Please model this.
Amino acid sequence: MSTEKTQADLLREQLFRRSKHACEVMDAAQIAEADEFCEGYKRYLDLCKTERECASWTIARAEKIGFVPFEEGKQYEPGAKIYVNNRDKAVILAVLGSKPLEAGLRIAAAHIDSPRLDLKQQPLYEDKGLALAKTHYYGGVRKYQWVTIPLALHGVVAKKDGSLVQIVIGEKDGDPRFCITDLLPHLANEQGDRKLKEGIKGEELNIVIGSRPLMMDGKAEGLKLHILKILHDDYGIDEEDLISAEFEAVPAINACDIGFDRSLIGAYGHDDRVCAYPCGEAIFQLNNPEYTAVTVLADKEEIGSEGNTGLNASYLMDFFTDLAQAQGQNPRVMLRNSKCISADVDAGFDPTWPSVMDPLNSAYMNFGLVMTKYTGHRGKAGASDANAEFVGWLRCVLDDANIHWQAGQLGKVDEGGGGTLAMFLAKLNIDVVDLGVPLLSMHAPFELAAKTDVAMMFWACAAFFEAGA
Model:
């Protein structure tokens, strides 16, 4: 049989776009480099399970390599490294370029909040021999996934004297952990008849926090009192202090390798720290760029980017305006000429659940970053739809840097959808498109990402920051 390629074969090679697995386009050294990059990412995931912890970690790392707080009205020279800390929950990092700001910025924006359970402001109660804490879920969680797994509590308590008490319980060896109970199958007939999304209801997400009463003078004085005494003895707080507290219940699970080949990372919080960490690392290595580079690490994306630390607030535009005006530049011209990656995840194709996906327009694990031209749901409602010219420009940047990427969207047209930070950046008249890492089990307490895709996010951000016009 002839092995020579036919004219049709050659034409297919010229005209078709064939997606390839990372192992087809990366050599052993590149795969080893990707694996090594992911070791740092796994450590970050273990240390940064809340938006506050991500912000604190980022600022500490930034300061070590020369970033300084941004000063309104100050003129900065090319190469200057500055940051903005918004209420310890969102961070802006910037490295000034040699070109005037009106030439445009290179912006990479990700979010550092993740789906979780928040304790209510008055959470503590006791009932029938158990001490419990009531929660309110944050973001798009599937509630049944949060029962019968070990949980840790991360929080900050603002006391009336102005002091802050930082609390993390459940992450160290020897720490107690917490849990939400579920019915035993022997008694779950009625629950089993519920629709899956109502299998566990919001008001049933109550965390077990104890079961022994406080004993005083030989008398049992109550479980809730015992819990409050522990909190007071260990942290100096009382029940009223919980009203001005933020406690987040997150999985007490560390990041780990998945699979015999160790090719995947399983962890809580990939969405969207799998993009936030590479965006930060890319700007940390940047020196004297041509265009001013900005990394935005935002809060509140999982609940619509609302609130004064979400990207629907004015703090990012305030920074852009202050930066431009201090340099004698027009902020509107600067933003009109800027280019942005909305660095957020997309759904990876799961062969166990193929019916909700369009195979031609889905992202596949280890096939590179997924470029999502538009988000939204059912008719692109709530979407940012990038213009073709910008998508074409970014394709060139990625291809010239040998970045492995694919095109995709979040499932079939009528199956659902979602939003990202892109729409809020587009409101500022910035060219923006979503580019991120595909995930399996997105929004679950334990998500999966491919190591080669994680590293590609870092290399893509680095190439984007260095890209010319």
Remarks:
- The CA atoms of residues 131 and 210 lie 5 Å apart.
- The mean pLDDT is 96.
- The domain at 18-114+268-466 is CATH 3.40.630.10 (Aminopeptidase).
